[in-house]
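Data card: per-record layout.
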Amino acid sequence: MELWIREAREGELEGLARLYMRAYQGLERYGEPSEEEAIAYLRWLYANCREGFFVAELFGRPVGFVACDPNWRDRRGKVLEIHEIVVAPEFRGRGIARALMERAFQLGRARGRKVAKLWVGEGNVQARAWYRRLGFREEGRWGEWIRMCRPLSEAKS
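The structure for this 157-residue chain is written out next.
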């Protein structure tokens, strides 16, 4: 498997939005309600932090992406915020998400961040379990969203 992780390009955001919509099938309550809104969301993520938007390419085509921001601020200061991690359903279980997450962690460490954080829907049981395997711990909640946190010094990926 020849996996390549590279920086995203603005011109591919519409295609990544289609991938995003497929990845959220069955979990629609946690994703964007339409492809148009998914495109707008991905454009916002890209505009806010291009350096943290990475695409996983396999066989010459995008099969996943991560959008993160190493300059995100929460109440304790700057953190590496993982906004999205998406892998095409047919390519799950091959280590693609783990490779994308490691790329995000590398960026966070390079920017001096000590902690990675993310939000996950409480009903997204698979994702929650996967994040725990990566060393994330539940830190709090807001409605049906769970805040998870992980020290970046740990090499669990």
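Known properties of this structure: DSSP finds four helices and seven strands in the chain. The first helix runs from residue 13 to 23.

See the next section for split statistics.
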